[in-house]
Amino acid sequence: MSQMSPDTDGITPALTRRDDIPDSQWNDWHWHMRKRVTNLGKAREWIRPTPDEEEAIEKTAGKYRWSVTPYYASLMDPDDPDCPVRRQAVPALGELMDYSGAEVDPVGDMFYRRTNRVVHKYPDRVIMLITEACPVYCRHCTRKFHTTDVDGTYFEKSEGEDFGEDLRYIADHPEIRDVLLTGGDPLSYRDGKLEEIVSGLRAIPSVEIIRIGSRFPVLLPQRITPELCEMLSRYHPVWLNTHFNHPKEITPEAERAVDRLLRHGIPVGNQTVLLRGVNDDVATMRTLMTELLRIRVRPYYLYHCDNVTGVSHFMTSVEKGWEIMDGLQGHITGFGVPQYVLTTRLGKIPMSRPSYRQTPEGLVLRNYQGREMLLDDSVYPLTETRVPAPGQREGGR
Ligand SMILES: *Cc1c(COP(=O)(O)O)cnc(C)c1O
Ligand code: SF4
């Protein structure tokens, strides 16, 4: 019956809101990095944690890294533990449970690791894991063993090693024409260090495109400064893929960051991970994809969530992925539809359900509404041997 909110009862401190912070601080990415939420006390400045969240924060401490930028924290619903931003950012007890088949590295990055930082899985392109640092340690990170697992990091003590060996490997393999900088988040480096890496790659004649995988546009868009964009644009062609998972993440700040990248000639794509309780429904995904197009971000991949140790509670079935793809394909424009892939030791496997099926009568095609038609194979032959000679069809069946 009391109208008193927990904000004013004198026991729980009032929550911080975006408007409490002066623009000069809010717009400064260094301020956000310094003010990151890293413990329960700081989390209470932004949200009212549930007992489960409190327990998870305590029990994951010392096992998994945790931090949340004030910017990303401000997107969390303070009262709703099911908030999709909160689910991605606040530890959950599921991270500590045993799930069958879970592995720290199910996609085999370690198996394909050729130098300290270079993972060479496909002949023509490599990823370079250049850091383990991220502005927010996403709970669903597919490289959790590398970014957030306090013991099991990929680098052990080698993160500070110079890049000579990595760049030499790439230069010695001229079939590599495409280098994707990832981590961790490459934009965690200051501009000067990043420029050393990017210019080192650009000096290798066989490297055609440089790609950056970064979640800063989502987790701390203030990092996308004019100086950063100007620097990157001196090493074109540079592409950037980011990682929006929910429409709530598409804010005016994110939109400005994307716009700045695009104006500097850096195409921006997006990789979404299909996450239980975050974006595993058609309506959310459709809004996400159309909102991405509105801010001129091109959807690229929809990743099936890997069975990674500490992440398995986010997994959905493959059927859920099909349902989502069926809800996108044809319902929105083709370039708003990402490719649904599952990452394995054999690489990324396209997983979309075919929109046709083989029958004794021929191929039956299905449109986005589920309507079907038989493809006339006298008009569209399936095999080369049945391609009619010119004129042969004249006066045909
Ligand atoms: C994802 C990935 C790439 C890049 O794949 P694209 O399909 O070209 O985006 C390259 N190497 C590794 C090891 C990867 O996991
Ligand atoms: S920003 Fe990317 S690499 Fe870093 S924790 Fe999040 S998903 Fe993992």
UniProtKB/TrEMBL annotation:
Top-rank taxon: Bacteria
Q: Which residues form the Radical SAM core domain?
A: 120-336
Instruction: Please provide an example of a Pfam family that matches this protein in its UniProt record.
Output: Radical_SAM
Q: Which cofactor does it need?
A: pyridoxal 5'-phosphate
Under PROSITE patterns, the record lists:
RADICAL_SAM
Keywords in alphabetical order: 4Fe-4S, Iron, Iron-sulfur, Isomerase, Metal-binding, Pyridoxal phosphate, S-adenosyl-L-methionine
**By its UniProt entry, which InterPro entries does this protein fall under?**
Aldolase_TIM, Arg_2_3_am_muta, Lys_aminomutase/Glu_NH3_mut, rSAM, rSAM_sf
Q: What is this protein called?
A: KamA family radical SAM protein
* Species, as recorded: Streptomyces ziwulingensis
